[in-house]
Amino acid sequence: MALRINDEAPNFTAETTHGPINFHDYINDGWAILFSHPKDFTPVCTTELGYMAGLEAEFAKRNCKVIGLSVDSVEDHLNWEKDIEETQGHRVGYPMIADTDLAVAKLYNMLPADESGTSEGRTAATNATVRSVFIIGPDKKIKMMMTYPMTSGRNFDEILRVLDSIQLTSRHKVATPVNWNNGDDVIIVPTVSDEEAKSIFPEGFKTLKPYLRLVKQPD
């Protein structure tokens, strides 16, 4: 089943480095980042997991939990975490899902549903598509998803930026423009009339075109 933005994030139970979880229960009433990896002890993913460990506190400030996934066992994950801390300088504090039966990868359309076998004997190349990032909201719906090639390290500062945008635009009738960063001006959404905009944004706004109105970022 193909997944799209605003689809409900498929629920699952799985073993992790923090014990068994039910994914929707893990999210609870907050936000979540699920990011996946094709294989343990791979170089690019080692740098990513370490960098994400260093950013975990920033996600926590935004009421967003982090959870990783790799197509290997809990034992392998725990051994890999030692390498990650040694080489990247950050201890992995978030759980890592052990997807040895490929169930979650298939559920999230990262591998074909009819893919046979388990993680045994598979390589990073055969799991190349298991390199996705999902932002999931408190309503358990997918708000963003990206898939990266194995040779390109992910930009988790960008994921944090997108989370800020999604959270802001879920609270206010605004959208964020190209290359927006927290604190920059935002766009009033077209469904808001000028009269309504004057009420919502009493400090005023700048009209570049009738459909393009800029306003100071609301609190």
Structure description:
This protein folds into two domains: 13-152, Glutaredoxin (3-Layer(aba) Sandwich); 172-215, Antioxidant, Horf6, Chain A, domain 2, CATH 3.30.1020. 31% of the residues lie in helices and 21% in strands. It contains six helices and eleven strands. It has a five-stranded mixed β-sheet, covered by helices on one side. A four-stranded antiparallel β-sheet has the order 8-9-11-10. It is elongated, with a radius of gyration of 20 Å.
Number of domains: 2
The CATH topology of the largest domain corresponds to Glutaredoxin
The spatial strand order of the largest sheet comes to 5-4-3-6-7
Low-pLDDT regions: none
What is the element string, with H for helices and E for strands? EEHEHEHEHEEHEEHEE
Instruction: Give the C-level CATH assignment of the largest domain.
Output: Alpha Beta
The CATH homologous superfamily of the largest domain corresponds to: Glutaredoxin
Count of runs of 4 or more consecutive helical residues: 6
- Biggest sheet layout: 5 strands, mixed
Query: What gross morphology would you assign?
Result: elongated
* Beta content: 15-25%
Structural class: alpha+beta
Q: Could you give the distance between the termini?
A: 38 Å
SSE layout and pairings?
Blueprint (H helix, E strand, L loop, with lengths): L12 E2 L6 E2 H5 L3 E7 L5 H19 L2 E7 L3 H15 L7 E3 L4 H5 L24 E5 L5 E6 L8 H16 L2 E2 L10 E3 L5 H7 L5 E4 L2 E4 L4
List keywords for this structure.
219 residues; alpha+beta; four-stranded antiparallel beta sheet; 6 helices; 31% helix
